[in-house]
Write a structure and sequence with these properties.
With 355 residues, this protein is of the alpha/beta class. Helices cover 34% and strands 16% of the residues. Strands 1, 2, 3, 4, 7, 8 and 9 form a seven-stranded mixed sheet that branches. Strands 5-6 form a two-stranded parallel sheet.
Length: 355
């Protein structure tokens, strides 16, 4: 047993590859000048909200720093594997904390000079150093909770344990163990079994009890949305950022943070080992954490903000993980522990749960 820290979107979407090369001639101030030869910053990222990022995040930075941003896009696993293989000239990489932890343990990232990240003073504590002080911050923190259709469930859902109730008999979904939310569900099952500290055997026993009621173990959020819209499921665990899609399909849909705690879902920024644009990459990190970028991202419902100076109200907060009262209650998993156990959990999941 091991206690998981209280307190993880991964979202594998586009796989289009826009390959780029490494940096060219650096300027003396590490990228702050808008004169002289244009530099190149190669960024590895997902393909979601591509138009928003190009207009609101990349373009202003390019103009301010006289830099050309080149993108490599794909899902977490694909992009991290390219870094492992040395087949990419990426300087800066966006990854979920689960995959970023793998990169850290494999020595794939540079340490970060936090004195360059002046916007960190305005960032929630949970996002400042989610994987250690030497590595990059989380630029967004979402939460995993329960979404459900009240027209198909005869009670108000308030707890992870409600998923085991008769109201969800034969109409619930869970994320697969290999999905971002998979380890969170294992931890939640341990809590439902009555354990204050994580208990693997109790968690898998509890999940086995729920298995007959599972319509499908989903690997992509689009599968959840499709099942929910067609009323094949009454609900299940999902990341809050996708709740707007559920509301569009079922206007009365509800999202709840379970009483035992919703889980923090964090996406991080890190500098790839050997990058010759480290200072420029740190400038970009700081820009991504700025109130300007964070506010635009939140209002466009692209990412939940980690900058505490962002002020949202009314409909702007729907589908967004927002506010100290929400963020500070999130449960944060120990990603080093998760990574060390994933092979065992995946094997047990396939044998005992997803039969």
């Amino acid at each position: 047993m091991k206690k998981w820290l209280g307190g993880m979107v991964t979202m594998a979407l586009a796989s289009t590859l826009l390959a780029g090369c490494g940096g060219t001639e650096p300027v003396a101030d590490g990228g702050a000048s808008n004169t002289g030869a244009k530099q190149k910053l190669v960024i590895s990222t997902w393909g979601f909200s591509e138009d928003f990022f190009k207009k609101e995040v990349y373009a202003p930075f390019e103009q301010e720093h006289n830099v050309e941003i080149v993108l490599e896009m794909g899902n977490n696993a694909e992009r991290l594997n390219k870094i492992r293989q040395g087949s990419s000239d990426v300087d800066l990489i966006y990854l979920s904390d689960y995959y970023a932890q793998q990169g850290i343990q494999e020595g794939l990232f540079e340490t970060v000079d936090r004195s360059k990240l002046t916007n960190l003073e305005h960032v929630y504590d949970i996002a400042k150093a989610p994987l250690g002080e030497e590595y990059g911050p989380a630029y967004t923190v979402g939460r995993l909770g329960i979404a459900y259709n009240p027209g198909m469930v005869s009670k108000e859902v308030t707890s992870w344990s409600d998923l085991w109730g008769p109201e969800f008999a034969g109409n619930v979904t869970l994320p697969n163990i290999t999905a971002t939310a998979g380890p969170m569900v294992v931890d939640a099952a341990s809590k439902v079994a009555g354990n204050a500290e994580f208990n693997e055997d109790a968690a898998f026993t509890k999940l086995a009890e729920l298995s007959p009621n599972i319509v499908k173990f989903y690997s992509q959020t689009s599968e959840f949305v499709n099942m929910f819209s067609q009323e094949e499921i009454a609900g299940g665990p999902i990341m809050e950022m996708y709740f707007k899609d559920l509301k569009a399909a079922v206007p009365d849909a509800k999202f709840v943070a379970p009483s035992e705690g919703a889980y923090a879902v964090m996406n991080t920024l890190n500098i790839v080992k050997g990058s010759d644009q480290k200072e420029l990459a740190e400038e970009f990190m700081n820009w991504q954490l700025s109130k300007e970028v964070q506010e635009k991202s939140a209002k466009a419902k692209v990412d939940s903000p980690v900058n505490t100076e962002v002020v949202l109200s009314g409909e702007e907060t729907e589908g967004i993980t927002y506010g100290a009262d929400v963020v500070e209650k999130l449960v944060k998993l120990d990603m080093a522990f998760v990574n060390s156990q994933m092979a065992t959990w995946t094997d047990r999941w396939n044998r005992e749960i997803a039969q």
